[in-house]
Amino acid sequence: QPPIDTPSSGAAILYLHGGAWQALDKDFLTQPLFRRLGNQGHVIVDLAYPLAPEADLNGMLADIRQTILWLKQHSSAYHINPERMILMGVSGGAHLALMAAYASGHPAFQANKPSADMSVRAVVSVFGITDLCAFFEEYGRSTRKQPEYSSQITEDLLQRIHDQTLIDRFLTHTRAFPAYRHTNMPGGALLLVNLMGGTLKEIPEVYRQASPINHIGPHCPPTLLVAAENDFLIDPTHARRQHQSLLQVGVKCIHREFPNCVHGFDQYIGVSRRIAPAAQSMTYDVERFIALMV
After folding, report:
1. What is the dihedral of CA 238, 240, 243, 248, to 10 degrees?
2. By the 8 A CB rule, do 285 and 292 touch?
3. What is the pTM of this model?
4. What CA–CA distances, in Å, run from 148 to 137, 139, 157, 203, 204?
């Protein structure tokens, strides 16, 4: 929360960390950003949403929905204006943020009070995946063992339990990389198959329904899209296409693509927002965008 002597802006920023839906935790290299935003009067809610493979995409989205509704119900206790809630996510968390902001009709949001108000004032996507159909193909090019059909899943791709050494226990029990317990490599060939419940060829409509770009319309809130030109994980075309689609339906959108930068350039250990020019510039963009929303 903001310092005691800082006037409240009434804004609440619900932050969803990165990690390809399966790794890391809340409060991971985020304190410099959180302190800056808190000093500007904003409340930051850093959510430890459930991770794959224990949770699928629907489980993650349902948890985010519940958090949004809880914050609105308890807004007065935290001096939050329920009309000033902003979703912000990084990488996999950015995909979740965009889905929560755009796709209130998704099945994961319809259980228990489907008419409940999930609307938010704005959304910030940093290195966000906007098209899961395209990402399935992109991920397959870098992860050659990703199957096209579930029948192609071989024994060497199935879950294994790594829980023998001190490093195993650290990775699996601290949320640093709990999916390590079930996969043979970071990411793993079955990352998207397990997350979505099948391959793109088997359930293409589920992939389309889970793609923020397919939920764009005049109902979408103002959006800030941050991308890295040399992103080695998420192609910057995701943000470019999202930006153009939002503008075409009249949604206010800002697209910032940083040249000569890679995925997560703002959070590398030792290259924080305090010293890295690109990260400082991105922080400024986020600050100004949020200020415009309140």
Report:
1. -110
2. no
3. 0.92
4. 10, 12, 13, 11, 12
